[in-house]
Design goal:
This protein has 465 residues and is α+β, with helices and mostly antiparallel strands. Helices cover 45% and strands 14% of the residues. It starts with a strand and ends with a helix.
């Protein structure tokens, strides 16, 4: 199994004169279940099982190139099947096994992500991912353990050299064989998304838990790598979570398993003896280690932040800004300075006739961009959305459906709302009809509602429509 060549093959196992054993599909399915069970602890998997010319032909995939054949497992499954059918009748069974193997070895298909591997020597980056304000996704050992399992991914040409997972922040030194940062960005975002989904499966109130921007700094000089590794290991000390690096359990400094992090990419670059010496020396000289994160946040300055965002979009006069651009500006302001919706409305417009329209657009953007629930949008904007009633929720659902084509059940899950919620759904159909001029039948098609129970209730409610 060396040199990238796969010597695995397929066994063809034939049970002779099997039509008496398996007279119909039900008995054949029963036998397949028994055989699946026999093969469960072996390197074999069933590729196909069918009756051909009165014989039962089973194609069994061998993924490890085993020397042994799966004939014993098949025979055991047949014996169990015969006992289940008739313990007193044990006919003799003829089984023939043959390994099918191409004369030309099959090469393993390399995963697509390796196309990003465009440098022989890795580049090193300091990467920090922060949670959104007020949330600590790494608050318990179960969450940290799950996140670490999410980081055990071979989908990208990257390798973690060092890590430290703090309650609301994770710091890494990452070696990347992709000269651009896209691979390591996707690597971290994939892990963050999996953890967010994990929380969402526990609580409907959970959306995407992390800031959209990662902090990524390229380590330009090889000699600086040990100091950056040490800075990651020292981040729990800097945050006041422990006194010494070896007291903190959630960093690669104390993780002896080396499952998700190893300094080997650095050692291969500079030599094991020299690299180990520099690594230990950097951890001893803590006074020279740059501090990471957990610095006191500068006081927000709306005028400064607003001018910065306007310059980013290349606009100066509020009255001439299209509504879709204003939505993006306010969303960026909220991310930058944590300004509430009411603050932004008052400071930008003083008073505005399209307040609810802007609010709807911002909520739609937050939901689609960060996968936040409706309640989470309320917290993010520091605004009680319940005051606006169901009409605002329905208009957000309309916009999400219009932009993405998502079905009603998926949108409700996205918003963290109860499904099917029939009273609300009837109200939604009524508003779609009156405000957007969408008929009952078109609503069903637009929202892709196929549940017969839901359709029956809707049909009774709109019998006259």
């Amino acid at each position: 199994m060396s040199n990238g060549i796969d010597y695995s093959g397929v066994f063809r196992v034939t049970i002779k004169r099997a039509t008496k054993l398996f007279p119909d599909e039900a008995t054949l399915d029963h036998f397949r279940g028994l055989l699946d069970q026999e093969l469960s602890d072996s390197p074999y998997t069933i590729e196909s099982l069918m009756i051909i010319d009165k014989n039962c032909v089973i194609m069994i995939n061998d993924s490890f190139g085993s020397i042994e054949t799966p004939e014993d497992e098949v025979r055991e499954a047949v014996n169990t099947f015969l006992i289940d059918i008739d313990p007193d009748d044990r006919p003799s069974i003829s089984i023939v096994t043959k390994r099918l193997k191409s004369e030309t070895p099959r090469h393993r298909a390399l995963p697509d992500h390796l196309s990003a591997k465009n440098t022989l020597s890795p580049l090193f980056f300091l990467v920090t991912t922060n949670s959104i304000e007020g949330i600590s996704p790494f608050e318990n050992e179960m969450a940290i353990s799950y996140y670490k399992s999410c980081l055990e991914s071979d989908d990208f040409p990257v390798s973690i050299v060092a890590y430290a997972i703090l309650p609301s922040q994770a710091n890494f030194v990452i070696a990347s064989w992709d000269q651009a940062t896209i691979s390591l960005e996707r690597f971290i975002i994939q892990a963050n998304s999996k953890l967010s989904s994990f929380y969402a499966s526990i609580s409907n109130d959970a959306g995407y838990l992390f800031n959209k921007e990662l902090s990524i700094k390229k380590i330009s000089f090889t000699g600086d790598i040990p100091e950056f590794i040490a800075s990651v290991h020292a981040s729990p000390v800097n945050a006041g979570l422990c006194r010494e690096m070896d007291e903190y359990p959630y960093s690669s400094y104390t993780d002896s398993s080396k499952r998700i992090a190893s300094i080997d990419p650095y050692l291969r670059l500079v030599g094991r003896n020299e690299g180990t010496k520099l690594y230990l020396e950097a951890h001893r000289t803590l006074s020279k280690i740059p501090r990471i994160g957990y610095t006191k946040r500068k006081r927000s300055n709306f005028k400064r932040d607003y001018a910065y965002i306007l310059a980013k979009y290349g606009v100066s006069k509020v009255r001439k800004i299209p509504l879709d651009i204003m939505t993006k500006i306010m969303l960026d302001l909220n991310d930058l300075g944590k300004y509430s919706f009411e603050q932004m409305i008052y400071k930008i417009f003083k008073k505005v006739d399209q307040r609810l329209l802007i609010l709807k657009n911002i909520i739609t953007s937050i939901v689609l961009k960060y996968r936040c629930s409706y309640d989470e949008c309320s917290r993010k904007l520091a605004y009680n959305l319940d005051m606006e009633g169901n009409a605002l929720i329905i208009d957000v659902i309309y916009d999400i459906n219009k932009q993405t084509g998502y079905a009603y059940d998926f949108i409700m899950k996205l918003l963290g709302l109860e499904y099917p919620n029939m009273r609300f759904l009837i109200e939604l159909f009524d508003r779609f009809n009156k405000k957007y001029n969408i008929s009952y039948g078109d609503c069903i098609k637009k929202l892709e509602i196929y549940d017969q129970g839901v359709l029956n209730i809707l049909s009774n409610a709109f019998a006259k429509v």
